[in-house]
Design goal:
This protein is 69% helix and 0% strand. By secondary structure, the protein is an all-alpha fold. It has three domains: 108 residues, no CATH class; 103 residues, no CATH class; 113 residues. The longest helix is centred in the first third of the chain and has 28 residues. The chain starts with a helix and ends in a 10-residue tail after the last helix.
């Protein structure tokens, strides 16, 4: 297996070149100052996203089509890294990429459930396809056939032979009883993160050190927000909270999750894990407003971890992983801008949601 300097020479050079093409905070400020959606699209055409927008005709420049186009750049980045990653790290990168297929699977199931419950004439494959991530040849789910099957049970049957078969088969027992997608989605989420963490832990040396650090920062954010939301919004029991979260992480440990589930002060737990996040108590005083801000602060922690991965030894999987996560966060920022400009949202309402507004 290629490893060390020889294994990372080509991909390190390639990823650093791709990293230099990410938008700067100054670029994001310039895009933010676009007066409307049309001006924003025009400004995006002068960035590396331009070639992905060039195929759209003027009458196709809708927010949904533009978002789909800029996601195509992220898909290309993942495809490039998957193909160039050293063999021993490829399963980890592929599993990280599968996060977007997981999102597609959820979207397909939701579209089927919505149609089944309300109006079978409303949803078509063409409409569903517009909201799916352009996963390309890596996709393992028969999305169109699932949508056209007409009901969740038939759609899940079509997942036989895919990485989701066993998880969905088990979770369908509860769905059949409740007709609620929530247990299906939770089962899919937990299975995804268990597999991702397992792939990171399989690595050795610097790959394992940096892989678990990068992936762990993302896993911690998700797990912590899950347990807080389940506790604050859904009022789930202690047992349910434990069943619907992960018993491992990089900084967020099983005892932290169990403490929140058992009723410990949430702000105290969060502040102990992340002492550099200010005013956690204030954020949790008004969860409706404060929890999105807390999630934003946790995302900033992930961003810092990713940026710091580029400092020092370049010969490890942490750099490609960090680049991919930073690319994803950049697309998230652009989606915020697209939605804000297309709905005439006030600056003060969307600017706090942007991650890339200052140099990290």
């Amino acid at each position: 297996m290629a490893s060390g300097v020889s294994g990372y020479a080509a991909i390190s050079t390639r990823v650093r070149a791709m990293y230099s093409d990410l938008l700067s905070p100054q670029d994001m400020t310039r895009l933010s100052e676009s007066p409307d959606f049309a001006s924003l699209v025009g400004a995006l055409k002068s960035t590396p996203y331009g070639k992905y927008l060039s195929g759209l005709k003027d009458n196709e420049l809708t927010p949904r089509r533009v978002i789909h186009a800029i996601k195509s750049r992220l898909a290309d980045s993942y495809s490039s890294v998957v193909q160039q990653a050293p063999e021993q790290t490829r399963p980890l990168v592929k599993q990280l990429y599968r996060y977007f297929e997981l999102g597609n699977l959820k979207a397909v199931l939701r579209s089927i459930q919505t149609v089944s419950a309300w109006n079978p004439e409303v949803q078509t494959w063409d409409r569903v396809r517009e909201i799916l991530f352009p996963f390309g040849s890596f996709s393992t789910i028969p999305a169109q056939a699932m949508v056209e099957s007409g009901n969740v049970g038939s759609a899940v049957d079509l997942l036989r032979g895919t990485p989701y078969e066993s998880t969905m088969s088990f979770a369908m027992k509860r769905f059949s009883a409740e007709q609620n997608l929530f247990p299906l989605e939770v089962a899919l989420d937990l299975d995804y993160w268990r597999k991702l963490w397992a792939e990171a832990k399989k690595l050795s040396g610097k790959d394992r050190e940096m892989g678990t650090k990068i992936i762990g920062s993302l896993l911690d954010m998700n797990n912590l927000m899950w347990v807080i939301r389940y506790k604050v919004y859904h009022k789930l029991s202690e047992e349910e909270l434990i069943n619907y979260t992960l018993p491992f992480g990089y900084r967020v440990r099983d005892e932290d999750v169990r403490a929140i589930a058992a009723g410990s002060d949430i702000a105290a737990v969060v502040s102990r894990i992340y002492p550099n996040i200010p005013d956690v108590n204030a954020l949790l005083d008004n969860p409706t407003v404060g929890l999105p801000k807390l999630e934003h602060a946790l995302k900033q922690q992930v961003v810092k971890t990713c940026v710091n991965a580029f400092i020092g030894d370049p010969f490890h999987i942490g750099i490609p992983l960090a680049y991919l996560l930073l690319s994803d966060f950049e697309v998230q920022d652009l989606i915020v801008l697209i939605e804000a400009k297309s709905t005439n949202m006030a600056d003060e309402d969307y600017r706090p949601l942007l991650l890339k507004t200052v140099v990290v």
